[in-house]
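Course assignment 3, question 2. Fill in each field.
Student: A.L.
Task: Predict the tertiary structure for the chain below.
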Amino acid sequence: MDFTAVIIASLTVGAIGLVVGILLSILGKVLAVVSDERVEAVRNELPGNNCGGCGLAGCDACAKAIVDGEAAVDVCPVGGAELAAKIADIMGVTVEAGSRKAAFVHCSGNCAQAPLAALYTGAADCHAAELLGGSGRSCEFGCYGLGSCVAACPFDAITIEDRLAKVDRDACKACGKCVSACPQHIITLEPYDAVAEIACSSHSKGKMVMNVCKSGCIGCGLCSRNCPTNSITIVDNLPVIDQSTCIRCSVCVDKCPRKIIRFDFPVS
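Answer field:
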């Protein structure tokens, strides 16, 4: 055996290994991605629901966006003001916590108020009903009551009662999933302590509304004409309330013949 050749081969392999190791070490330092410790710190504070309520693809993406300055420190709707304050502390900034929000269903037409005009036998899904022309409800603007919002809610804050969606405002985290899931577009996120809300979405004229729903807004304008602060206007046969000027006098509630203006509602 030629021991000289073996030694030379061994030394050659060793030298190559040493050079490669040095090159890898240098490249590792040159190409290293600097990790911001704040990303992990923010991620640890986020609730981990990955609900997408922030508009991003989960809590990991949310944490990175906050640290990169691409999202506000209060972007997470689930954690509310308390979480926003913690993240602001990590980021070394201050934040004015916004008012807590909750989902509100702008409809009062359950089966008793808005009887079914036809028997719906399709899939128990609002989008499926939309494709079939409706869920059999007599009001074209009303809640289908088939539970797409319930399926979308990651916090079990919505139930269907008598074919009408109901929101548990205390359980709601304002993630907005239900808003996106509703094909009728009758769910909105409103301040938790909202002054008043209109529990109707119909834009039909009074007589047409009365033919299909016992509680739908008929656009009579009594609320608007009697409001002492002119906080209510009728837009497309439906009241719109300016909550910034409303003084909570409840005159509109008393004057509304259909009782669809709600104050201090515990549920929608």
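Instructor remarks: The beta strands are 101-105, 158-160, 165-167, 187-191, 197-198, 232-235, 238-241, 261-262. The chain has a mean pLDDT of 85.
Grade: pending
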